[in-house]
Write a structure and sequence with these properties.
Its EC number is 2.7.1.148. This is 4-diphosphocytidyl-2-C-methyl-D-erythritol kinase. Pfam families: GHMP_kinases_C, GHMP_kinases_N. The chain has 281 residues and is an alpha+beta fold. It has two domains: 153 residues, 2-Layer Sandwich (Ribosomal Protein S5, domain 2), CATH 3.30.230.10; 117 residues, 2-Layer Sandwich (Alpha-Beta Plaits), CATH 3.30.70. 34% of the residues lie in helices and 29% in strands. The protein is built from ten helices and ten strands. Strands 1, 2, 3, 4, 5 and 6 form a six-stranded mixed sheet that branches. Strands 8-9-7-10 form a four-stranded antiparallel sheet, covered by helices on one side. Helix 2 crosses helix 3. The structure holds adenosine-5'-triphosphate (ATP).
Length: 281
């Protein structure tokens, strides 16, 4: 028996940190969606948990978030079954696209099936939160409002139709470093989350994009000028909106028309090595 799970990349249409909890963790309010750039996770029964990847540099031991997800599920279910987990990596690493979290969530969904556990998505999301704050969202991997420390995931239904162009500069960003550095003095403009939600409910692209923003963007962009340069290029080439995803450094742009998205994508390729034209799932 082999179970195959797709692990899509996520982008943050909006990202706000409302306050810090006493333990330093952020209280998030984020609108997230997934795009069709995915890792593929293959799971087979085995005596112990093993993780392999085709990446050549990712850890294949307990440091891998996929391994941690499998262990968390074993512990929650109180079982000793193992699995061989192979990750075919396509999502850029440490990019703000949640690749590791999505692999972890795919492992939770896949092992839930392999081990016949019958957990609901909400239960898997709770287990996933112990691995990383983006894992609960990735268990769903559909457009959602995400709150709390990442554990409150409210699916939102269909988005207005648009194309997404992702551009990943050649720097890797450590999410914990950025999250520690954020305070009220260096935060970027807050999104108008209600406006983003209203735009999605009305399937109105302009209304949705008018509310979009990411408070982490100013913090990461102050360290990596590539981010502002990519945003400026995107706008110059005709993107309707350009914004950093997560803690960066990937910048994404949105276009309603495919022809315009193709033009932006082709133009960006001359400027940035890693560019992807994708659609929301
Ligand atoms: P987020 O926005 O959720 O912080 P990210 O896209 O910025 O995610 P990831 O690609 O998930 O970052 O990787 C972050 C770190 O996790 C890297 O240092 C990487 O070595 C480690 N890691 C562990 N397991 C994985 C995995 N399966 N895929 C990618 N990275 C992993």
């Amino acid at each position: 028996m082999e179970i195959n799970q797709k692990a899509p990349a996520k982008i943050n249409l909006s990202l706000d940190s409302l306050f810090r909890h006493s333990d330093g963790e952020h209280e998030w309010e984020m609108v997230m969606t997934s795009v069709d750039l995915s890792d593929y996770v293959r799971i087979r029964p085995a005596a112990h948990i093993h993780v392999t990847t085709d990446s050549g540099f990712l850890p294949e031991d307990p440091r891998n978030l996929a391994y941690q997800a499998a262990r968390a599920l074993q512990t929650a279910a109180g079982i000793h079954a193992g699995a061989h987990i192979h990750i075919e990596k396509h999502i850029p690493v440490a990019a703000g696209l949640g690749g590791g979290s999505s692999d972890a969530a795919a492992v939770l969904r896949g092992l839930n099936e392999l081990w016949g556990l019958g957990y609901s998505k909400q239960q898997l999301a709770e287990i996933g939160l112990t691995v990383d704050s983006d894992v609960p969202y990735c268990v769903y991997s559909e457009t959602a409002l995400v709150r709390g420390r990442g554990e409150v995931v409210e699916p939102l239904g269909d988005l207005p139709n648009f194309w997404v162009i992702l551009a990943k500069p050649r720097v890797s960003v450590s999410t914990p470093t950025i999250l520690r550095a954020v305070d009220d003095s260096n935060k970027g403009a807050a999104p108008d989350t209600q406006r983003v939600l209203a735009g999605i409910a009305h399937r109105n692209f302009e209304e949705m994009t008018a509310g979009m923003s990411n408070v982490l963007e100013a913090v990461t962009a102050a360290r990596y000028p590539e981010i502002t340069a990519l945003k400026q290029r995107f706008v110059k080439y005709g993107a309707q909106v350009a914004q950093m995803s997560g803690s960066g450094p990937t910048v994404f742009a949105l276009c309603e028309k495919k022809s315009r998205a193709m033009h932006v994508y082709n133009s960006m390729k001359g400027f940035c090595k890693e560019v992807y034209l994708v659609h929301t799932r």
